[in-house]
Design brief:
By secondary structure, the protein is mainly α. The protein is about 65% helix and about 0% strand. It has a domain of about 70 residues. The longest helix has 14 residues.
């Protein structure tokens, strides 16, 4: 399940919809969005607000996002909903989607209402909006807000995948890798994780690395696993750093000269946790450190600071 507030790096859902070059107001909204991307929050808010007040749908949704996240202004959930609603009333799919997501999760002061979320997702799906197709698919797969329909859910999520939404591709890979809602299909999961990883989705990079390390859905590829663990770790994904330690420990017989490095990865994870899921790596390095020399431990602690 995803809230479509980001696309590519840090753009709101409204920014991910197709651009209509003939709409000068829409282009102005995109320019205001660019200020946000450049870190100029105050300028972005000052630029987007008058456009939203003119009734430009994309600007309305962006302004809603700014109020939701406090970008260039104070956080105001009520105003976020108000502007999302305006965008939705004007037929903007991201406005519909963000309202649906808020109802689905009981956020922004709205009551949790899965049926209402389903209704709004359906409207956005009619506009071929990939994040909504994805979330609607999950509703059918898990029977949330509507009757369970596994076949329809699978068809919808595959449709969203064909539209190229990286978060959808990542989530579908996870579902197929774990059997959470659909039958396990490791080769397909591995292929999809590879696509999502190439789009820079941190947890997809980490999971793709794990499948390569363990030979799930394809051959064992330790070099590939290390590449993707490192890529995920570079984004700050702590689990991937600890995965590097475990990979090197698991292959100590063939990689004896990298065991100090393994301990260093453990120290890095320990000092940068807890992870996004709450995993805390504190104390995980004690046992592996106990079998190293004091000089090795000192080297590992120094090396960890370079990662």
């Amino acid at each position: 399940m995803i809230r479509s507030l980001v696309c590519a790096v840090v753009t709101v859902a409204a920014l991910c919809a197709p651009v209509h070059a003939e709409e000068s107001g829409d282009i102005a909204a995109i320019r205001a969005r660019q200020l946000f991307i450049e870190g100029k929050a105050d300028e972005a808010f000052a630029a987007i607000r008058p456009l939203a007040e003119q009734g430009i749908p994309r600007a309305e949704v962006i302004l809603g996002f700014f109020y939701e996240r406090g970008i260039g202004t104070s956080v105001d959930p009520a105003l976020a909903v108000e502007w999302y609603q305006k965008g939705a009333d004007h037929g903007h799919p991201a406005g519909l989607h963000n309202l649906a997501y808020s109802y689905e999760n009981g956020e922004l002061g709205l009551p949790k209402d899965l049926a209402k979320a389903h209704e709004l997702y359906l409207k956005a799906v009619e506009l071929e909006y990939a994040p909504s197709i994805h979330n609607l698919a999950r509703q059918y797969i898990y029977g949330e807000g509507t009757a369970m329909d596994i076949d329809l859910g699978r068809a919808l999520i595959e449709r969203a995948v064909t539209l190229g939404d990286p978060e959808t591709i990542s989530d579908y890979a996870y579902i197929l890798a774990t059997g959470d809602g659909l039958p396990v299909d490791l080769p397909k999961a591995r292929k999809l994780y590879g696509i999502a990883a190439a789009h820079g989705i941190d947890w997809a990079m980490r999971d793709y690395g794990e499948m390569q390390e363990l030979g799930e859905g394809g051959p064992v590829d330790l070099a590939g696993a290390e590449e993707w663990y490192r890529a995920a770790q570079a984004t700050g994904y702590v689990m991937a750093g600890f995965d590097m330690a475990e990979l090197l420990w698991a292959n100590a017989a063939t990689l004896p000269d990298r065991q100090v490095e393994a301990l260093a990865w453990c120290y890095w994870a320990e000092s940068n946790g807890p992870d996004v899921d709450g995993t805390d790596y504190t104390g995980r390095c004690a046992d592996p450190a106990a079998v190293r020399t004091p000089d090795d431990v000192t080297k590992a602690q120094a090396m960890a600071k370079t990662f």
